[in-house]
Known about the structure:
Layout: E1 2-7, H1 12-21, E2 27-32, H2 47-62, E3 69-73, E4 77-79, H3 84-90, E5 97-101, E6 108-116, H4 119-135, H5 139-149, H6 151-156, E7 160-162, E8 167-169, E9 184-186, E10 189-190, H7 200-215, H8 217-228, H9 231-241, H10 266-271, H11 276-279, H12 284-290, E11 300-301
Parallel strand pairs: 1-2, 1-3, 5-7, 8-9
Antiparallel strand pairs: 3-6, 4-9, 5-6, 10-11
Helix pairs in contact: 2-4, 4-5, 7-8
Amino acid sequence: MKLFFFYDENFRPLRDNLVSSLHDDFELREYYLPDLGVMKNRAGGGVPTYLYKAHRVRDAIDEVAEGEVLIFCDVDVQFFKPVKSTIEACMTDDLDILLQSEFEDIGVNIGFMAMRNVPSVRSFWEHVHKEIERLGGLDQRIVNNILYSGRALQDFGLRWDRFPVTLWASSLAASGRIPPDILLHHANFTAQRCVGGDPSVKLAQMHEMRRFLAEDPDGLSAFLSSVQHDPTILDYRDRHFGARRPGEVWATLPEGHLARQGGFSEKRNKKAGVSESSILTVSEDQVSLAGVFPPTELAAVA
């Protein structure tokens, strides 16, 4: 099984950490360039990085045989145990792509994905790339919109699902818990803002997570609690997966789901004199029970 990832010189320490943590005999396929040209105040490096990633995902698909399953991940991932057998078990014949869970009950994270080289996947990523160009928006938000609206299945025939939370992202700490059989850690959420091109905050979290799991359960509990009660999670949930979510209807969600309707406009409500505090509908308990956010451009989530 081939594992694809990309990085520039600034993120070489993350690349080295990823590779040194592997427990499987993946065939590594690395995309390197000296400087990604990240935008310092945007999650995940901004539009140049979003476009580059979507382009490289398409390249990766083309590099494997028809029907073959590949893995594409970000470099802020570290492995604690073998994952290949879990990926193979989860990637059943009725699926084309599996994406990491952003939160326990909803949301995908494109920092760790398994996908087949099939027409639906190729068409999907071609469309994602075009949408990033057209909208200049966050790649992960675009992916969530296409999936949850139902357009992925309707337009491309894409069959998708999410990995179990054992393939863990730090945004999943919003539930206040961590699976005992955690296989990997994706440092997609940091309380401290990450400055583009500087991996130190993520490296520090990854080091701490290894220490927590090895010898410091109290430290782990404190970390989980800090994420669970982080005000940025509350705000971003409401704006992107709650009552303040803009955009199209997410028809795959059940009627009455807070994130289903969409269509909210911050600008329109500001003109109407509605304060943010009066429309914030999400509590910390709701995040604990049903954290549903994709990464935010305002918080250090990528």
